[in-house]
Amino acid sequence: MSDDGRVTYGLRAIGVVHSPYGEPADIPREWNCRKGAFDAVAGELEIFPEHAEGLDGLEPGSSLVVLFVFHKAGYSHLKVTPPGETEPRGVFASRSPHRPNPIGLTVVRLAAREGNVLKVTGLDMVEGTPIIDIKPA
Amino acid sequence: MSDDGRVTYGLRAIGVVHSPYGEPADIPREWNCRKGAFDAVAGELEIFPEHAEGLDGLEPGSSLVVLFVFHKAGYSHLKVTPPGETEPRGVFASRSPHRPNPIGLTVVRLAAREGNVLKVTGLDMVEGTPIIDIKPA
Description:
By secondary structure, the first copy, chain A, is an all-beta fold. Chain A has strands at residues 8-12, 15-18, 42-47, 63-69, 79-80, 89-90, 103-114, 117-121, 130-136.
């Protein structure tokens, strides 16, 4: 329980993203509106060895949902103004990283698996992003 | 840091699900393969008042991604055998609740917002499920 009586949950990273993007500012602004811009962006999902067995059955060519931590978000707001817009909106009507729980969601394409490493395309996360979960899309 | 040196993250529920399903066993087995079975299942996402402002801008009729805690999962496995299958597969190639980080993802349809309560259809979570995040689908 937290100090206001709300239940809290602990998550542990299952792996880490390797990406050509070093910082959030490196990621093109288009990510919110047209994810197709990232189809060619290749990188790796390195899953820690103790979880590698959990990857069995993932099919190259398939799409994967990746849950991750916005580990550079730093703060959260209830109202945000998305890039290219002028009116603020509720954070739950946006994909801002500055959320009460800074968990991100993206969909990547699996190119190949090499042991505990997934080679993927469609990346829009930065280098070092902690991975929380992978699910079939 | 956890005792093996891996970084951990703390999440706090932003709300709670009100559902006609009381226990996981009440949820039809079809959930994994044809989510359409739930189109008519109505319920509520009660967002705690301190986060209600974050709902501004959600449009009735739109689809919402809901991240939640599988709070009744209790344990995790790296290999699981989905309902109706005979061969085990890696948990990351499944939607089993018994995951290293027991976070679930579903998509619901927003019927109406009443203050801090979202009336939705398409529910496949049980009563009392902790909500972690809501994003536009």
